[in-house]
């Protein structure tokens, strides 16, 4: 699970399942598994589902009743995904609402291998707390570090949503040998902001992740949800636009704002090619970065 470098040669096909979520867990799971099956039929070897895909995005409000939606790892969702992964012979990046212990919950994912085994476990590091994204009420910050897992297809890193805005997390994944960096996501517009700020918000989201690809020389795969979801008085329109970009930020494929399954081929040799001509890892001044572990550096 944790060798120093990836394969670096050949290619891998990745599958992105962009979906909307209803009110019933069983129906959401069926849609996700159907999408994974469709991706596998198109040749996908590694498939990623959206953040918290078994439910609507409950973090719009604070309600202790939603803790009942959490589940252990292993648990019902990992059991069903494991069966499908084994049947199809694919790796599935599987986000879920994790119940670790009574009163202790995480926004998590597991990497389910083609043998059905749980080959990697990640807990979301960065937890937002905005009026419509009140995740700090539900989730304890992750304590497993940045996940990088070796799979038969490639060496992959996996982070979750709000993590995608932080260059430190992407860098750590690259330094641990990730070739593919997955970001399962739940992000969208507030209806009152879409007209005035929507295009710039979407562009910022896409740009920062392309920046991670460029700065680190990795493929980035972002998998969002779509549809309007209202929990209590609030509503979010999830914007979709799941995409794949190569190690120089070139967008290889992008969905729109509807449900979609993308299968995209990633030529792993592209990582070596880009890093030879744009050697950002070579030129890092690791001796000069003291202070990056501080919250803020006061001026002299």
Can you describe this structure in just a few lines?
This protein is about 25% helix and about 30% strand. The protein has helices spanning about 25-40, 75-90, 165-175, 190-215, 270-275; strands spanning about 10-20, 45-50, 90-100, 105-110, 120-125, 130, 135, 145-150, 155-160, 180-185, 190, 220-225, 225-230, 235-240, 245, 250-255, 260-265.
Category from helices, strands and their pairing: alpha+beta
How many helical elements?
5
CATH superfamily name?
A: Carbon-nitrogen hydrolase
Number of domains: 1
Radius of gyration in whole Å, from Cα? 18 Å
Q: What is the strand tally?
A: 17
Strand content: 25-35%
- H and E string: EHEHEEEEEEEHEEHEEEEEEH
Strand arrangement, major sheet: 5-4-3-2-1-17
CATH uppermost class: Alpha Beta
The description of the largest β-sheet is: 6 strands, mixed
Instruction: Using the coordinates shown, work out and report the CATH topology.
Output: Nitrilase/N-carbamoyl-D-aminoacid amidohydrolase
The overall average pLDDT, rounded, is 95
Low-confidence stretches: 1-5
For the record, the CATH architecture stands as 4-Layer Sandwich
Principal-axes shape call: globular
Helix content: 10-25%
> Alpha-carbon distance between the termini?
44 Å
Could you describe the 3D structure shown?
This protein has 300 residues and is of the alpha+beta class. The protein has a single domain (11-288), classed as 4-Layer Sandwich (Nitrilase/N-carbamoyl-D-aminoacid amidohydrolase). The protein is built from five helices and 17 strands. The strands form four sheets. It has a six-stranded mixed sheet. A six-stranded mixed sheet has the order 8-9-10-12-15-16, with helices on one face. Strand 9 (155-158), helix 3 (167-175) and strand 10 form a beta-alpha-beta unit. The radius of gyration is 18 Å and the shape is globular. Residues 1-5 have low confidence and may be disordered.
């Amino acid at each position: 699970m944790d060798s120093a470098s990836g394969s670096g040669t050949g290619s891998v096909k990745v599958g992105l399942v962009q979906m909307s979520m209803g009110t019933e867990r069983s129906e959401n799971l069926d849609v996700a598994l159907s999408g994974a099956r469709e991706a596998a039929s198109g040749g996908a070897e590694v498939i990623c589902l959206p953040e918290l895909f078994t439910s609507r995005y409950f973090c719009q409000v604070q309600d202790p009743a939603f803790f009942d939606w959490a589940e252990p790892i292993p648990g019902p969702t990992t059991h069903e995904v494991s069966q499908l992964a084994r049947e199809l012979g694919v790796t599935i990046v599987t986000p879920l609402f994790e119940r670790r212990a009574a009163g202790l919950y995480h926004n998590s994912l597991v990497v389910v291998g083609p043998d059905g085994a749980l080959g990697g476990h990640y807990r979301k590091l960065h937890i937002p707390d905005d009026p419509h994204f009140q995740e700090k009420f539900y989730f304890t910050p992750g304590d497993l570090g940045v996940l990088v897992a070796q799979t038969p297809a490639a060496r992959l890193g996996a982070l979750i949503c709000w993590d995608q805005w932080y260059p430190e997390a992407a860098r750590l994944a690259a330094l641990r040998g990730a070739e593919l960096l997955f970001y399962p996501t739940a992000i969208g517009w507030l209806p009152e902001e879409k007209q005035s700020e929507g295009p710039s918000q979407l562009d910022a989201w896409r740009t920062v992740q392309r920046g991670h690809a460029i700065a680190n020389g990795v493929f980035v795969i972002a998998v969002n949800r779509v549809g309007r979801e209202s929990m209590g008085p609030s509503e979010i329109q999830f914007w979709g636009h799941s995409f794949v970009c190569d190690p120089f930020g070139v967008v290889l494929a992008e969905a729109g704002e509807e449900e979609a399954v993308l299968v995209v081929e990633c030529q792993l040799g592209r990582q070596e090619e880009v890093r030879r001509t744009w050697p950002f890892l070579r030129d890092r001044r690791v001796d000069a970065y003291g202070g990056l572990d501080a919250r803020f550096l006061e001026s002299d």
